[in-house]
Amino acid sequence: MSVRVRLAPSPTGTLHIGTARTAVFNWLFARNQGGTFVLRIEDTDTERSKAEFTDNILEGLKWLGLDWDEGPFFQSQRLDLYEKAVRELLDKGLAYCCYCTPEELEEMRAAQRAAKQAPRYDNRHRHLTDEQRAAYEAEGRTAVVRFKIDDDREIAWNDMVRDRVSWNTSDLGGDMAISRAAKPGEVGQPLYNLAVVVDDLDMKISHVIRGEDHIANTAKQILLYEAFGAAVPEFAHTPLILNEKGAKLSKRDGVTSVSDFQAKGYTAPAIANYMTLLGWSPADGEERFMLGDAAEQFSFDRVNKAGAKFDWDKLNWLNGQVLHELPVETLLPMLVPYWKEAGYRFDLDTDKPWLEAIAATIGPSLSVLSEAVEMSRPLMSDAIEMSEKAQGQLAMENVSEALKLSLEKSQAAKSFDVAAAKKAIKEVTKELGVKKGLVMKSLRAALTGELSGPDLIQSWVVLHQRGLAVERLQAAIG
Ligand code: GLU
């Protein structure tokens, strides 16, 4: 059997991290099996679907390196297919028109709430007589089509992640609406469970890989496969992504879409790597890998059943690893937008060597690109603010002398580079009989106004070459 998988995002929002992770697992499985990855945009909800969200989803997938083999197909362009399927179910007597008004349904639900019952459709229009139907239509009522779901049947499947999963049909909420309200004789827009099954059949999807939150839908969809007399695909339900408190990752956690991560300065390889680790781990325990390498080893045997906790430290670590390996020519253009946004003034052409020196200085300390704003502030700004701690350092014994001597040595050097700066610090330490730590710490305080930051020696050199070190040292001495 040839493996065909699909990602079926609804363009009602930007590419959600959960959808991206589902995309990753589909992609890994497809590539591992030499299969086909299909992209289908589920845009039948015309009110909430937006072209800009489709663009965001496609761009996000491309950015992550998740190339698809077929599509994107748009459900909104396939409405005839769904209508035909709804009519087939009506003809077979497996579905019927339900004329309930929203008010009637709400009344029914309120009664269920009052009786502390689970909300469900009570199948009240399943056995309407022709007269009743005619009367509703004469009233001008529209009808949704409902698919019959009999109670007390066990639906079970062998899930690739969760092994045996079973669901009782009594817990599926009664007969299920499969199309929206439409005038008598017409079929309204299809609803999710119907459209998904029609498409998965039409697109010959062999394995449906999606989040665990779809398990109840899977039970409903299996009933639809049966109704169409079709074979049921394999299912893999991947664990939910949880926040640090163990609850489902949501908007409240701040960052939920791939573009949010992108804006914060996470790189595509780190996000793709981390998404993979959210639920899967390679047999060799290696945590850093490229998607292509993971695809070679990927199997659902190593996907966890339990929810995957989002671990910011691990993501930051992975992203830092990626950033630290970037050559300065690659890193610089990635930093420029953050610097511009922060309002730093520079000219990309004439200031290039200076900017590259800053990129090289802060690069090894970055874990997220957006950190570049604070990290490069003392290097990019003409003036610095002295933190209290830095002021405290400058007030310590021997500091003034150490800075004075350091300044003299930097000015005496023929060309002040990293080697010259190291030499100067060594000599000051020796000549004044003070600790190297004191000299370094004092220089940092004087030059950056802080007691921590990126590499001090490189920072000093960058500031010296930009003509900013001398005045800052003089100010600190004075
Ligand atoms: N459109 C559905 C969603 O975005 C697809 C679910 C599925 O993969 O079947 O959740």
SSE blueprint and pairings:
Elements: E1 4-7, H1 17-33, E2 36-41, H2 51-64, E3 70-74, H3 79-91, E4 95-98, H4 102-114, H5 130-138, E5 143-147, E6 154-159, E7 163-168, E8 176-182, H6 192-202, E9 207-211, H7 215-227, E10 234-238, E11 241-242, H8 258-264, H9 268-277, H10 291-297, E12 308-309, H11 312-324, H12 328-342, H13 352-362, H14 372-380, H15 388-394, H16 399-412, H17 418-432, H18 436-448, H19 456-465, H20 469-477
Parallel strand pairs: 1-2, 2-3, 9-10, 11-12
Antiparallel strand pairs: 4-5, 5-8, 6-7
The structure holds glutamic acid.
Main traits of this protein?
478 residues, mainly alpha, Rossmann fold, Glutamyl-tRNA Synthetase, domain 3, Helicase, Ruva Protein, domain 3, 4 domains, three-stranded parallel β-sheet, three-stranded antiparallel β-sheet, 20 helices, 48% helix, binds glutamic acid
Brief synopsis:
With about 475 residues, this protein is mostly helical. It is built from 20 helices and twelve strands.
Description:
By secondary structure, the chain is mainly alpha-helical. It has 4 domains: 1-72 and 239-325, Rossmann fold; 80-193, Glutamyl-tRNA Synthetase, domain 3 (Alpha-Beta Complex); 326-380, Orthogonal Bundle (Helicase, Ruva Protein, domain 3), CATH 1.10.8; 388-477, Orthogonal Bundle (Arc Repressor Mutant, subunit A). The protein contains 20 helices and 12 strands. It has a 3-stranded parallel β-sheet. α12 packs across α13, α16 crosses α17 and α16 (399-412) packs across α18. The radius of gyration is 31 Å and the shape is elongated. The chain starts with a strand and ends with a helix. The relative contact order is 0.09. The model has no long low-confidence stretch (mean pLDDT 96). The structure holds glutamic acid.
